[in-house]
Every structure is written in structure tokens, then in C-alpha cells.
Amino acid sequence: MSSTAQIGVTGLAVMGSNLARNFARNGFTVAVHNRTAAKTTALVKEFGHEGTFVAAESAKEFVDALERPRRLIVMVKAGEPTDAVIREFAPLLEPGDVIIDGGNAHFEDTRRREKELREQGIHFVGAGISGGEEGALLGPSIMPGGSAESYASLGPMLEKISAKAADGTPCVSHVGPDGAGHFVKMVHNGIEYADMQLIAEAYHLLREVAGYSPAKIADTFREWNRGRLDSYLIEITAEVLAHTDAGTGRPFVDIVADAAEQKGTGRWTVQIALDLGVPVSGIAEAVFARSVSGHAELRTAARGLAGPAAEPLSAEAADAFAAQVEQALYASKIVSYTQGFHQILAGSQEYGWDVDPGAVASLWRGGCIIRAAFLDRIRAAYGARPDLPSLLADDGFAQEIGAAQEDWRAALVAAVRHGIPAPAFAASLAYYDALRSERLPAALTQGQRDFFGAHTYRRTDREGSFHTLWSGDRSEVRTD
Q: Rounded to an integer, what is the distance from CA 303 to the centroid of its chain?
């Protein structure tokens, strides 16, 4: 088999097939391979007219079809299946070749694989790919991590198939070494969880407090999508809420079981944030909200507990409340991105990646699930101040969230009074209030820790670590 393919894709489920088609549609010759050869044959038969494909039945045929340096994209399940594919193909490759993992791998697995393959002279790229099946075909946001040399070889191809922002910029860039790409994709998904939960809470408040119908809420979301909340998730939310079930004639949201599933990347975001000591409370509450929704027996057992009954507002009051909910949604959204970017910067520092947060915001402007108009402003904020410690330290975002706070608080008061859970709204506001507080009760916490465990504390008036002898005369000793 002649070495004519510029890129190869192994693993031809929907995402892998669509990615291969995307490359072919953009003029690249694509080698395709699957553990089940019938999928390879079916892909070429059905979509061969879209470009040039080279079908390969065996791993050796697949590798032989690739021009040097070989570029091989793995699109299989994360974990052991990915390791198995690497073990199969790595012995067939040569120094300078590139293996790209386009799945949702844990970044620590990517770091391990990159190190192992680097020792063999093979480049390994962990590329986060966002946009779902449609994005894979029409243009995703791509977050590749790995060596600079691998991106020099692979980058121009990824830039051609990626989504393009409104200004024409490809939504892909070299994120950083080893696991940086998959780390950033993980945080992207964590922000996605928070964004979706915040939207769901806004829907719940509009439904139960304002008394709006799903169709009315769909109209409200369409209106919001014409303003500062302009985003893919707001757009599709309006579509979902406007949909009527064909079989029953009822609103679609009323016939869907209210138990949200998850694939795990949101949990990873929270777990790693705990390891890094980064507060991502809004994202965490979004993950926990999905968990609560899935505990049917627990919810059934608690359904008779006392609580206030929701009393819908008058039409005039409902419209005023909807405006408050919009403010709460926007302010909480700023917080979720603030927390996500904090985690990215903390991970970058911990692992020595030197991730550019402005570049990350740029590549999220198109193709990905959290694409939103205000990402341009996040990119500009980090461009103006590369050392920006927090999005809340940006004058523009600080002014907006300050202007929103009264309505934000009013929306949460209404939620509490009507017995409507709004954990992500509440956690976001608590985070905002914690950051702006002059003093936090952590001083008391430190006193408690020193009392029962002699964990020591620091003082506000002089340097050093101290411990109080809590028995007897309560004398204080310096411990360093």
C-alpha cells in the first residue's frame, strides 16, 4: 500500500467517522481503520464521494498508508481501550511520528502516555475535541496538548478542519505540553455542567415562580439570546422548551424523566480542583445537582417533607422577576467561567504548562458546547492584562456583576421563599461574597483546628506560625 494518506483515523464510531469525513472534505487524503473492518468498508462506501479515503483492514496496512511523519488519530473509548490501541500501533511507528488521542481522556493518562511514547521518539498529542457529532463533521473546537514539534506537523491540518470564530480565527491552538489539552477540555466540560445547571435553574424559577409555560420560557430565552447571554446553550434551550411531544401533545420537558446523566468529566473537574485547592463551587453544585436528580428512591422518600408552596406571580410581577433571573443567570455565568479559568491557571502552574488563558477563550468562541459571545470579552480581558488574577478583577466584568447583584440576591430570595432549589445560583453568589469579604470565618476555623489538633495558625499582626496552649493559662508559643 502506497504511503499517500496525510492523516489517519482509527476508531470509526460516529465521532471518529465524522472527523475522518471532515478531513476528507477539506482536501486531505485520509486513511481509515476500525477494529471491525465492516465499519471501514461502510464508511468508504457511504461517504467516499466526499473526498479521498484509504481503507485499511489491518494495523500494518493503516500505518503503511500514512506519509511521514505519520499522523494517527485514535478515536476510541478512554482508558484501557485507548492504551490497547497505542500498544498495537506504537511498535509499527518510527521516531517523529505522531499519535493523537481525540477522546475524553483523563489528563493524567495523557501525561503518562506522552512520557512513555516520548522515550520511544514518538510524539503523543492529547487533543480535546468539543462540539459533539456535528462539530466533528462541520468544525469542532480543538484543544491539543503535546510537544511544539508535533503541533508544527499537525497544527495546519487541525486549523483547516476546526470551527472558525466570527472573525475567521480557527478555534484551535497549541494549549501546552503533555496533558494540557485534555486538562483544558476537562475544565471546558466542567464549565459546561455549570452553564447547563444555571440555565436549568433559571427555567425552574420562571416556571414555578413566574408561572410561565415552557413556550413562554422559550420565547424569553430567545430574547435573552439576542443580548449578552448570546450562546449555543441558550439557543438550544429555547428549541428544547418550544418542542411539543408528538405522541402526547404535551411540552417535551414534561414527558422527560427528571434524572440527568453524566459521563464523568464534570466529576473530574471537581476532583482535580480539590487536589489543586481551587474553589469551583458553582461547577461542583452542578455535578451534585445531577447526582441528586438520579436518586429516585431518596427523592420519593423525602417528597412529603414540609416546605413552602410555590405561588405564581401576577403577570406584571412575573415579567419583572424574569428580568431579575436574567441578571442572576448572567452574574452566575461570569462566576462559573471565573472559577474555570482559575482552575486552568492553577493546573498550568502546577504542571508547568504555561497555558495562555486568552488563547483558551479564543478557541472556545466557536465549535464547542460553551461557545458564547462574551468569550470575546474574556479573551480581550486576558489580552489586556495577561497577569489578571481573576475575571472578577477585570473592570468590565466587575461593573456588570456589581450592577447585577441586587437582582441576583432577589432571585435567590424568591427561590428560597418558594422552595425552589437553586444550588448553582446560590454557590455562585456565595463565592462572589466570599471574595469581596474583608474577613472570613476561617479565622475561627483555624482556632478550632489549633484547639483539637495543635495545627497552628498565623496572626495578622506579626509573622510566624503560632500555637495556643489551650489548657491552663492559654499561653501562646511560636512554632517556627
A: 32
Q: DSSP code of 303?
A: T
CA distance 204 to 136: 32
Distance CA 79, CA 110 (A): 10
Do residues 306 and 199 lie in contact, with contact meaning Cβ atoms separated by under 8 Å? no
CA distances from residue 136 to 19, 51, 141, 174, 179 in whole angstroms, order as listed: 5, 16, 9, 18, 21
Q: State the angle between helix axes of 375-384 and 395-418 in degrees (0 to 180), rounded to the nearest 10.
A: 140
Pairing of β 465-468 and β 457-458 = antiparallel
Rounded Cα–Cα distance for residues 467 and 453 (Å): 10
Amino acid at 446: Q
Cβ contact 287:281 at 8 Å: no
The one catalytic residue in 60, 116, 164, 192 is: 192
CA distance linking residue 168 with residue 444, whole number of Å = 53
pLDDT category at 397 given cuts 50, 70, 90 is very high
∠ CA 367-368-371, nearest 5°, is 95
- Measured from the Cβ of residue 119, the count of other Cβ atoms closer than 10 Å reads 8
pTM listed for this prediction:
0.95
* 253 class by beta-carbon count within 10 Å (0-12 exposed, 13-18 middle, 19+ buried): middle
**pLDDT (tens digit, 9 = 90+) per residue, 116-131?**
999 999 999 999 999 9
216 is catalytic: no
DSSP assigned state of 470: T
* Active-site residue flag, 192: yes
Q: Is it the case that residue 2 has pLDDT exceeding 70?
A: no
* Coil vs helix vs strand at 265: helix
Q: For residue 144, say if its preceding peptide bond is cis, omega within 30 degrees of 0.
A: no
Reported as a single tens digit per residue, the pLDDT across 437-478 is 999 999 999 999 999 999 999 999 999 999 999 987 788 888
Cell of 344: 486552568
Q: Exposed, middle or buried by CB within 10 Å (0-12, 13-18, 19+), for 88?
A: middle
Q: Which amino acid is at 457?
A: Y
- Active-site position among 57, 94, 134, 185: 185
